[in-house]
Amino acid sequence: MGVRLYFPKGGSHLGRRMIDLAALSRSQLRDWLAESEHAAQADRLWTWLFRRGGRDFADLGGHGRVPVSLLRRLETEARVGRPDVVWEHRSGDGTIKWLLAMEDGQRVETVFIPDGRRGTLCVSSQIGCTLTCRFCHTGTQSLARNLTAGEIVGQVLFARDRIGDHELTAETPRRLTNVVFMGMGEPFYNYDAVADAVRVLSDRDGLALSRRRITVSTSGVVPEIERCGRELGVNLGISLHAARDELRERIMPLNRRYPLAELMRACRAYPGLSNNRRILFAYTLLDGVNDSDDDARDLVALLGRMPAKVNLIPFNPWPGAPYEPSPRERVRAFQEILLAAGLAATVRETRGDDIAAACGQLTTAGQTEEFSEAW
Q1: What residue spans of the chain are helical by DSSP H?
Q2: Which CATH number fits domain 19-79: 1.10.150.530, 1.10.3720.10, 2.40.50.140, 3.55.40.20?
Q3: 95: CB partners within 8 A, 6+ apart
Q4: Which of 122, 129, 267, 359 is catalytic?
Q5: What is the pLDDT of residue 4?
Q6: The sheet that has 2-5: what strands, in order across it?
Q7: Counting CB atoms within 10 angstroms of each CB, which of 21, 63, 281, 355 has the fewest?
Q8: What is the C-alpha separation between 375 and 369, in angstroms, rounded?
Q9: Where does CATH 1.10.150.530 sit in the chain?
Q10: pLDDT at position 316, please?
Q11: What percentage of the chain carries pLDDT values higher than 90?
Q12: What is the per-residue pLDDT across 159-169, written as a single tens digit (0 to 9) for each?
């Protein structure tokens, strides 16, 4: 466990309108190349970008792999999106959290959680958040801006670079197997960029992540739920955390706009929903707030026979948090009620809480100073 500090290179492309190749779909890349009659190079460039983790265009010039005219255009008009790492912090359980700087200096946090032969990357979709969920540290930080599709994909490319996860073989299988949009921000308030990023991540000739291994989680932005299922076909996660409107409005003000009845209707109509493709409902247990036996029974009644899985999350404290985690015995009792009613219910293992990388702990406010002092 330890902290490693890095210093951003700076935005060498600031002031110039550069094409971020990491943000383009394959068809968009082909169209851009066609402007200079290089469309035939699209597949080669795509493989270099995503299969080989290419970054330096000079690498494309060797052995005549691409025409010199294309190489010149790439060097003057394009870039490969990668954020700069400000610091890296490793947990005792193997979780890695990075503070990443975008070209304009704005920062986000990204977390990699290894689990045996699998590994999940938790990516951010916004810098800060528009929502003010009271149990979430990110909610204490106001929204700075949305991330672009390239900045979202860039988090994945960066993580693959750091863990050496490209040029895969049977002897060296991929370590990054799942991506969850559960980091900073509300993904459905940046839907278009998230959708473009999902399409790049899931391209079978690129990063080739199955859409069944991509989860987009929302706090309940109802209008985008059906659209997400229809257009993207990814797993849907719902940050629920309460089963009664009065309580949910208190801890998640978004519920005033999209109450539970409306949210549940959208979930039941989610395209592709089945017992093999369940919705994941996250429920953070707050001591004395939403963790009683009655709360558990309300949750059973709310979800009914919907194909669902409930992920019970012990609250992860942060400085100034207004809540405390529920005792372990209360968590077990809550889970037992759900299981007895036939609901699939698991208790999420807390990972990375020693480096503030656990669920609900991400924020960029004051982080550089905090970890610089620790280092």
Answers
A1: 26-34, 42-50, 68-77, 149-163, 191-202, 225-231, 245-251, 260-268, 293-303, 328-340, 367-374
A2: 1.10.150.530
A3: 111, 112, 113, 114, 351, 352, 355, 357
A4: 359
A5: 44
A6: 2-5, 84-90, 96-101, 107-115, 118-122, 178-181, 214-218, 235-239, 279-285, 308-314, 344-347
A7: 63
A8: 10
A9: 19-79
A10: 83
A11: 63
A12: 999 998 765 55
Q: List the structure tokens of 193.
A: 């960029």
**Predicted structure pTM score:** 0.86
Q: At residue 369, does pLDDT exceed 70?
A: no
Buried b (16+ CB within 10 A) or exposed e, 304-317: eeebbebbbbbbbb
Which residue among the candidates 103, 109, 151, 224 is catalytic per the annotation?
109
302 band by pLDDT with thresholds 50, 70 and 90: very high
**pLDDT tens per residue across span 240-250:** 999 999 999 99
The answer to whether 108 and 148 have CB atoms below 8 angstroms apart is: no
pLDDT for the residue 130? 85
Phi, psi of 156 (to 5 degrees): -70, -45
Residue 23 near residue 81 (C-beta atoms within 8 A): yes
Strand partners for 124: none
- At residue 5, the pLDDT reads 42
What pLDDT, on a 0 to 100 scale, did the predictor assign at position 151?
93
Task: For residue 359, indicate whether it is catalytic.
Answer: yes
Mean per-residue pLDDT, 291-314:
96
The Cα 232–Cα 195 span in angstroms is: 7
Residues of the chain with CATH 3.20.20.70: 84-374
Whether 112 contacts 121, CB under 8 Å: yes
- Domain 84-374 carries which CATH code? 3.20.20.70
